[in-house]
Amino acid sequence: MIDDVVSAALSVVIALVVAFPLAKPFKRHPWVFYGVAIAVVFIHLWYRFTGVYVASLQRFVDILTKGYLAAALFAVVMFTGTMDERSRLRRQLQPIRAELSILSFVLALDHVIVFLPTYLPRLGSIFAHSPVIAMSLTVALLLTVLYAVLSVTSVRVLRVRIPYRTWKALQRSSYLMVGLLWLHIVLALGRSAFGGHGSLAAQVAFGSYTVVTVVYVMLRVRKAVYDRRAHDEVRSEAAAYVRANVTETPIPSVESQDRQA
Ligand code: HEM
Fold it and tell me: Which residue's CA is minimally distant from atom 40 of ligand 1?
């Protein structure tokens, strides 16, 4: 349990270090960061599948295997969307949002590659006899596909080739991802948190992800209400301006224009 809290806290710290002190080099050379992430994932998976276990490195391994760092980076991306466009924090994070999302996906691949093979050999029996696990797996797969699509379409060379409206619609599905991630955690951890011998670690993880999701939804709804109000104000001011100008300087009629000519 303490190990999990330390790993989760470490993940939040790493995500914030990338988002703040390292923001400039990250924006300038994102491929260096992606390369490091790919190398770390590769080395970890190599050791894992060849059966090497180093107890002292477990906290670092959990950061990857349990999806903590991927989730922390994804949280930075999503919470940025709840901030006022003019705020300093938003202006700091907005330029690296796409890069953070790609980095998050690369790191999440470790978690996917660790867990997915444990289900594959019994896929048939899972879908035939275990509806909850089948649902959990379906949600996990949907989440992974959506995550991949959103990240790949964030790569700049691809992004500029996609029509803006299509790209914008795709990016909106990141809200669906928040829901799917929460549902994935409910289904993946629910039994170990609240089943017969519910573990405290799973309960804390379940509670923490739920609180973060609820706070995110509240802040995002607040931002949407604020934006709608600001939009309505601008529209009514524009309408008032048009009304005032149209009544003060009437457009000359065709006849009067003809007379002047
Ligand atoms: C097919 C793909 C996936 C499979 C098979 C899968 C499987 C699992 C399993 C079995 C657990 C429970 C682990 C445990 O009991 O400790 C879990 C938890 C979790 N998964 Fe996934 N997952 C997948 C995709 C993803 C993706 C794309 C993310 C995105 C970040 C993600 C994030 C998480 C998180 C944050 C947890 C909670 C970990 C914890 O606190 O212990 N998963 N997943």
Answer: 205
Structural domain includes residue 258: no
In a domain, 259, yes or no: no
**Residues 102, 30: contact at Cβ < 8 Å?**
yes
With a 6 Å cutoff on the Cβ, whether 7 touches ligand 1 is no
With a cut of 60, say whether residue 254 has pLDDT above it: no
In a domain, 260, yes or no: no
Helix (H, G, I), strand (E, B) or coil at 209: helix
What are the tens digits of pLDDT across the range 28-57?
A: 999 999 999 999 999 989 888 887 777 777
* Position 257 confidence tier, pLDDT thresholds 50, 70, 90: low
> Over the Cα atoms of the chain, what is R_g?
25
Cβ of 78 less than 6 Å from ligand 1: no
Predicted local distance difference test score (pLDDT) of residue 135: 94
Give the count of domains, the chain.
1
Output the six-digit token pair for 118: 């444990």
125: in domain: yes
Query: Which two structure tokens, joined as six digits, stand for 135?
Result: 């649902």
Domain span holding position 227: 2-247
Query: pTM for this structure?
Result: 0.87
190 closest CA partner among 177, 205, 180: 205
Q: Would you say 107 and 41 are in contact if contact means Cβ atoms under 8 Å apart?
A: yes
